[in-house]
């Protein structure tokens, strides 16, 4: 089974505000783009992934991610993360009704294709399934089988909210690279320790990170 992934991405100037103490206003947009580039490149290198659609209104991000092979969907609802994901999933479903769809965060710079394959293969056993983030509070991936709506409830406490929505929590071991989202400086240090992709490695080299 091959998946279509929907990756949401805020306008870069507003993205990753919780990294303000680690990357200043001049560097943060480039860092957020680098996370998205490494996430999308790793996803497209995954044999379980047929294609990747990024929902974004950011022109620069749209250009750079299209170069990697992503389809770009404008964030027409402009109603926040879950509206953007439902919009993207709806467009994918209208063009390809038989395809399984998964939402994947754009901030997974350590993402490894074999680990993403394991997560998607596990998700394929259920109508809807999700993977909790490294902090075990949020969600990094939400999957829906063909014919099932995605029904995303990302945001505060999304692990509990996805569980309450009936999605099955995937309790896989050794898929750290799919769980390691980067919201804070500590998250970035953890991702660097796992090993990030080339865009994030280059962007992070411009930051002053203790221990790096
Ligand atoms: N298209 C789209 N993507 C969004 C929107 N809000 C958040 N995202 C994306 O959803 C994922 C999780 O977003 P958040 O944690 O809310 O925001 P963030 O920019 O990652 O970090 P903070 O600014 O620190 O909250 C990231 O990939 C964001 O770029 C939105 O309104 N539209
Ligand atoms: C929106 C989410 O991600 P983040 O951890 O980036 O806030 C979430 O976990 O639902």
Automatic annotation (TrEMBL):
What is the species listed in this Swiss-Prot or TrEMBL entry? Streptomyces purpurascens
The UniProt record gives the binding positions of phosphoenolpyruvate as: 139, 155, 158
Q: Which reaction does it catalyse?
A: phosphoenolpyruvate + GTP + H(+) = enolpyruvoyl-2-diphospho-5'-guanosine + diphosphate
Q: What keywords tag this UniProt record?
A: GTP-binding, Nucleotide-binding, Nucleotidyltransferase, Transferase
Q: Per the similarity annotation, which family is this?
A: Belongs to the CofC family.
The UniProt record lists the EC number as 2.7.7.105
Q: What does this protein do?
A: Guanylyltransferase that catalyzes the activation of phosphoenolpyruvate (PEP) as enolpyruvoyl-2-diphospho-5'-guanosine, via the condensation of PEP with GTP. It is involved in the biosynthesis of coenzyme F420, a hydride carrier cofactor.
The molecular function terms in GO held by this entry are:
phospholactate guanylyltransferase activity
Q: Does the keyword Nucleotidyltransferase apply?
A: yes
Pathway per the UniProt entry:
Cofactor biosynthesis; coenzyme F420 biosynthesis
This chain belongs to the protein called Phosphoenolpyruvate guanylyltransferase
Question: Which PANTHER family does the entry mention?
Answer: 2-PHOSPHO-L-LACTATE GUANYLYLTRANSFERASE
Q: Which Pfam families match?
A: CofC
Q: What class of enzyme is it?
A: transferase
């Amino acid at each position: 089974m091959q998946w279509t992934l929907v990756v949401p991405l805020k306008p870069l100037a507003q993205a990753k505000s919780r990294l303000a103490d680690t990357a200043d206003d001049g560097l943060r947009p480039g860092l957020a783009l680098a996370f998205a580039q490494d996430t999308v490149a790793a996803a497209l290198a995954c044999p379980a992934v047929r294609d990747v659609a990024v929902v974004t209104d950011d022109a620069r991000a749209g250009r750079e991610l299209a170069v990697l092979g992503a389809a770009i969907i404008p964030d027409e609802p402009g109603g926040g993360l879950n509206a953007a994901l439902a919009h993207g999933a709806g467009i994918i479903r209208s063009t390809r009704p038989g395809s399984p769809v998964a939402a994947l965060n754009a901030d997974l710079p350590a993402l490894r294709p074999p680990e993403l394959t394991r997560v998607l293969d596990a998700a394929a056993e259920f109508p809807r399934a999700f993977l909790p983030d490294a902090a075990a509070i949020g969600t990094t991936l939400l999957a829906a089988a063909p014919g099932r709506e995605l029904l995303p409830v990302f945001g505060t406490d999304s692990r509990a909210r996805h569980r309450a929505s009936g999605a099955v929590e995937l309790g896989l071991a050794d898929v750290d690279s799919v769980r390691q989202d980067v919201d804070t400086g500590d998250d970035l240090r953890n991702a660097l320790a796992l090993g990030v992709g080339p865009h994030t490695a280059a962007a992070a080299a411009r930051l002053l990170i203790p221990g790096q």
